[in-house]
Structures are given as C-alpha cells and as structure tokens.
Amino acid sequence: MRTRATAVAATLLLTALAACGSGDGDHCAGKDGSGTGGDRTDGRAADLELGEPAQTIGDGGAGVLRITPNTVVYAREGSGEKAANGTFAVIAMKVQAMTGAPAEQTAPITGDGWKWIAPDGEAIGFDSGNSTMISMDKYNSGGAVQPGTHEWDAEAFDLTEAQAKGGTLLYTDGDGTAYRWKMPTTDTGPDVAELKKELAG
C-alpha cells in the first residue's frame, strides 16, 4: 500500500516531468534528447550510462533532484590519503532541484544513497577503506539544494583493483527507487582534469 509520503513524492515527480514539455529541450532529456533519462516510479533499478541524468525523489519524499554523474576518476591517492584497498573511484555529479521545494540526497544512514557494485555483485558503501577522507572544495554539495539552483557533488569509494574494473554506481532515492550507472574502467568525462586537480589539492 502506498503511504501518504510516497503519494506526495509521486505527485512531485509528475510535476517535474510535466516540465519536460515546457519547451526547454534539455530540461528532462536523456543523452538522445528523447526522454527523461532514468525516471522510474516502480522501485526497480534504471540502467544508465555515465552522463545520463536521473530524476529522483529527495530524502524523506520531499522534492525532486535531477542527478547527473558525469565524470569518474581512478586514483591511488586523493586529498593527501592513500587508498587502503589500492584504488579510489571518485565520481563527480551535478545535482539540481527540479520543483519549487528544496530537496536533499538520501542519507547513507538510512541504508539508501550511494553504493558501488563490484563486478561480482558485492555492494560497497560510502565508508569503504579511506573513502571518507576524500574532501574537495568544489564537489562538496551538502544539505538541501534550493529550488532553481544546482550544486556539484562527488562520491568516493576505496576499492580493490578487481572491484574497480567494470563496476556500477548505484543510487537509491527517497522513494526507494534505484538507479544504476555503468562505470567506465578508465578516467572518463568532461571534468577529468578538474576532478584530478581537486583530488591533488
């Protein structure tokens, strides 16, 4: 049975999707401009490529966030720390509020939020190895994203070499819907140079 919070969240999502027909061709488009990227309302995982956006429900069912992971960098060191397991995988993303309400990403403490899925299916959390030691000035979105704005954020995972090759980035939103981005095995994306600079800072 759908709860009141879930029903409200679904209404907010439909409101955001209605804006796709407002004339802004890129507002809700996926890579090919034909759809809404990773929109799902059935709780199943949507499979996406790096650079494709997902319309997600905010933490607690409040607001809608359009999240677009666009760059991945692999490094043995970052923010002055060595990867305990051998390799940091750091993913940069744009986070944009899509409705008139502020929205936050889901918190890892709830069991939702971000995870790295290794090729063998192991789910690796945000606090793997020394991943929580990664800190960057630009990619540090925290708290609610305000309506009409976007912020830049990043997720870092401390992985073994085997876990890093052919992994999948997983995000579970405030409505329990999961989104998966297949990760390239080498540094990829428009912000590789900037992300490396931030990691070295």
What features would you describe in this structure?
This protein is an alpha+beta fold and about 200 residues long. The protein contains three helices and eleven strands, in the order H-E-E-E-E-E-E-E-E-E-H-E-E-H. The chain has a five-stranded mixed beta sheet with strand order 1-11-10-7-8, with no helix packed on it. The chain is globular, with a radius of gyration of 16 Å.
Index terms:
alpha+beta; four-stranded antiparallel sheet; disordered N terminus
What's the SSE blueprint?
Blueprint: H1 4-18, E1 46-49, E2 54-57, E3 64-75, E4 77-78, E5 81-82, E6 87-97, E7 113-117, E8 123-124, E9 150-159, H2 161-164, E10 168-172, E11 178-182, H3 192-200
Parallel strand pairs: 1-11
Antiparallel strand pairs: 2-3, 3-6, 4-5, 6-9, 7-8, 7-10, 10-11
Count of runs of 4 or more consecutive helical residues: 3
- The geometry reads as globular
Described by strand count, sense and barrel closure, the largest sheet is: 5 strands, mixed
Number-wise, the strands total 11
Distance from first to last alpha carbon: 49 Å
Helix proportion of residues, in percent?
A: 10-25%
Strand order of the largest sheet: 1-11-10-7-8
Outline:
This protein is of the alpha+beta class and 201 residues long.
